[in-house]
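tokens incoming
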């Protein structure tokens, strides 16, 4: 084998290996983000909202737009989720159609969400909402975390619960 053939073969092999590593990284990132978003929705139904929960999903400086108001910071998100979820006796949050775009250590994710809630006011009333969630994520030392998210409700059925005065904002 002459030198040019050897160099060309090894250069192509190196390029192929680099491309394979890039593709594996992209697929791994997408899988990790998809898993994070799915675990987040399931966690809403499990109802354990503590510091560990907040750190598992959000960056310290997260911004969250929710139907019950926009908050900034992981502690504020934790408190707002606690307030909102306390209004329900039981919930089921379903996500589907998640699209993920990764750009280095940043990513976006968008998916449809259908949320079914049984009110905790003793009425056993049903409140259903559907919409889309748009999220920005960053890669941290602990894995992917949500740095910004917005839930945009498209339609509802039933009577939504009422937050205590001064809780929304």
């Amino acid at each position: 084998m002459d030198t040019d053939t050897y160099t060309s073969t090894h250069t192509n092999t190196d390029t192929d290996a680099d491309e394979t590593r890039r593709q594996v990284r992209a697929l791994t990132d997408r899988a990790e983000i998809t898993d994070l978003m799915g675990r987040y929705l399931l966690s809403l139904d499990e109802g354990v909202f503590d510091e560990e929960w907040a750190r598992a999903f959000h960056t310290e400086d997260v911004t969250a737009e929710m139907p019950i108001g926009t908050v900034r910071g992981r502690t504020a998100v934790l408190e707002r989720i606690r307030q909102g979820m306390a209004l329900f006796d039981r919930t089921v949050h379903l996500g589907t159609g998640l699209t993920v775009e990764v750009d280095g250590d940043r990513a976006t994710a968008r998916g449809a969400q259908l949320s079914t809630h049984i009110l905790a006011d003793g009425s056993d009333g049903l409140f259903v909402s559907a919409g889309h969630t748009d999220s920005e994520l960053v890669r941290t030392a602990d894995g992917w975390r949500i740095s910004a998210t917005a839930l945009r409700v498209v339609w509802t059925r039933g009577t939504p619960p009422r937050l205590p005065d001064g809780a929304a904002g």
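note: The chain has a mean pLDDT of 91.
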